[in-house]
Specification:
Radius of gyration: 24 Å
Strand order of the largest sheet: 1-3-2
Structural class: mainly alpha
Number of strands: 3
Largest sheet: 3 strands, mixed
Number of domains: 3
């Protein structure tokens, strides 16, 4: 599950001003300030508001220019000053957690705006298609009303893309190519289906004609932006591109803001290296045990890594047909739900549907083959979508490599991670959190960490019947989370090159070539996010063991899960305070 940050969507917001008058207005009423802060945050990030199910700013398409960035920075500094006047020592633990999360979010937004400055080097920040698609596909209002709202957004599409071009100064080639791919997807958003919706609406003929002309103008603006980006790719010399590697200073700071861990990025990297060695030992033992079953009279290699690889390669031949990939995922979800319910692991809300669908075109290109799109806290009754990239565009060899990676066993673990009781289940609970702060400002390491923790927890409770094959494939899959951390840090800080990364992923992590190729693409396009899986897992598992020790004979796994998830998607270190202090 990836947290959507829309820093390119900025707004002019007039605060009542400086710290003195604001402090007098709020006094010690932190609850009132939280409401004010949330509303201000949506004003500053109207695109993120739409993704979260808050539709007050649906008509706002912000122009990401210098003036709006300056106004946003002024607003953030005023909020930071106001926050500093509250007496944290007198707050409950729950209130303190909200305070810390607001503080973290403000400081993060300021850092992204002043230090990270991806609006200058990441052209993929600029894409209007996703938000228009969200509004079009939402059922929060009648179609006619939504079309009229989008008409207001359409008016600024041309200026939006003109400003985007002026912002881009020294882009990376990788993010430029991603922007091309995703904006091509946005052209599909504004295609025949959108036209049919306009023509089939109850708007007047004049309104329909105007909207259709706006739709055509938006397509032209996107096409011109694509031409601009394609010319950049064609004309820029290889030495003139900015490196996609962000370096140790930005990396450590981004890790601190995004992950919110008690560890530094370097410390987590070192823990991951140690974990990898432990997993290799477990996998060696299982592979040697399974060797006679799968390799029969084949001589066992002397090198342990080779033993693991040959057994994994043999077991990986058991996979679905390329045309059945999506169907197999749909079939497995009810089976996972039944297991969770039968084992009394956690309550699953039957009123919150999960819809498995093909990944929309405007979301493609990031390198992630599966993801969850969850309704926000303001849209609690909306569908949760399990996005699965189809294999239709793959060559026969690429599809076979991909399916060996997501074989019979790992496909089940993937569905645990993405759906039940992983992301889908956790995000349903997050939307029901009594604290909107914890629901809105979800911590990526907690979200990903829960999904990774769920995989181990399910096997601990008998999913897969404790088959050696399932445990071996689980360790291989879990090794992926560990190696994600090693890879990300090694690439962005230690300058690992592609050949080294491919060797590491295919040999040390036992990944198929197709998976390794996708991971290399992903590590070039993102930073730090790949560390969230292992970091969150480690902290959640350790919290469970501490809670178990505290509860003693009273410990019940379901109660731990439901209490842990009841706090929303707060950083694990803050949930630790809520549960144990």
């Amino acid at each position: 599950m990836r947290k959507i940050r829309t820093f390119c969507l900025l707004v002019f917001l007039c605060l009542i001003a400086v710290s003195g008058s604001v402090e007098k207005s709020y006094g010690n009423d932190f609850e009132q300030f939280k409401e004010y802060y949330i509303e201000t945050f949506w004003s500053l990030n109207p695109g993120y508001a739409i993704y979260s199910g808050y539709h007050k700013y649906d008509s706002v398409l912000e122009i990401p220019n210098t003036e709006n960035r300056a106004q946003k920075l002024k607003t953030l500094n005023a909020l930071k000053d106001t926050l500093s006047h509250f007496n944290v020592a007198e707050m409950s633990v729950n209130m303190k957690t909200d305070y810390w999360m607001i503080r973290d979010q403000i400081e993060s937004d300021i850092w992204y705006l002043t230090k990270f400055r991806s609006f200058e080097w990441n052209p993929a920040n600029y894409n209007v298609g996703g938000v228009f698609a969200m509004i079009m596909n939402s059922d929060h209002a009648p179609l006619d009303e939504r079309l009229r709202v989008m008409s207001k957004r359409f008016k600024l599409v041309e200026e939006y893309y003109q400003t985007a071009k002026s912002n881009i100064k020294n882009p990376t080639k990788e993010h430029t190519e991603l922007a091309i791919l995703q904006n091509k997807g946005s052209l599909g958003v504004f295609g025949d289906s959108f036209k049919d919706s306009i023509r089939g609406s109850d708007l007047s003929e004049k309104e329909k004609e105007f909207l259709l002309s706006q739709l055509g103008a938006a397509r032209n603006s996107i096409s011109e932006f694509l031409e601009y980006l394609n010319n950049k790719v064609k004309d820029t010399k290889s030495d003139d591109w900015r490196s996609f590697r962000i370096g140790i200073e930005l990396y450590e700071a981004k890790f601190r803001h995004d992950i919110v861990s008690r560890y530094s990025a370097k410390e987590i990297y070192e823990k991951a290296v140690q974990r990898k060695e432990l997993l290799h030992d477990k996998m060696v033992n299982l592979s040697k045990k399974l060797w006679p079953k799968y390799m029969k009279d084949t001589p066992m290699p002397d090198e342990d890594i080779a033993v693991i690889k040959q057994v994994i390669d043999k077991i990986s031949l058991n996979h679905v047909h390329p045309d059945s990939f999506l169907v197999a995922i749909r079939k497995q979800i009810p089976e996972l739900e039944k297991f969770v319910t039968d084992k009394n692991l956690i309550y699953l809300d039957p009123t919150k549907p999960l819809v498995v669908r093909q990944t929309p075109a405007y979301m493609e290109g990031s390198g992630a083959g599966a993801s969850i799109s969850s309704p926000g806290p303001y849209d609690k009754y909306g569908n949760t979508y399990y996005n699965v990239s189809p294999l239709s565009g793959y060559s026969k060899e690429h599809a076979e490599s991909y399916l060996r990676e997501y074989n019979h066993y790992i496909l089940q673990i993937l569905n645990i991670h993405e759906a039940v009781p992983g992301h889908y289940t956790q995000l349903v609970y997050a939307n029901n959190s009594p604290s909107m702060i914890k629901s809105i400002f979800g911590n990526g390491a907690m979200i990903e960490g829960w999904a990774v923790y769920s995989e181990l927890m399910m096997l601990e409770n008998g999913y897969g019947n404790h088959d050696d094959e399932m445990w071996l494939m689980y360790y291989k899959w879990h090794l992926r989370s560990v190696c994600n951390t090693i890879l990300d840090y090694s690439v962005h800080v230690l300058n690992m090159n592609k050949d080294e990364a491919m060797q590491f992923l295919t040999k040390d992590a036992f990944q198929q070539q197709a998976e390794a190729d996708g991971k290399w693409r992903r590590v070039k396009l993102s930073q730090v996010q790949l560390t969230s899986y292992f970091t969150g897992f480690r902290e959640i598992y350790d919290l469970r063991e501490a809670w178990k020790e505290k509860q003693g004979d009273k410990f019940k796994l379901r109660e731990f899960h439901e209490q842990f998830l009841s706090y929303g998607s707060a950083p694990v270190r803050y949930i630790h305070a809520l549960m144990l202090e």
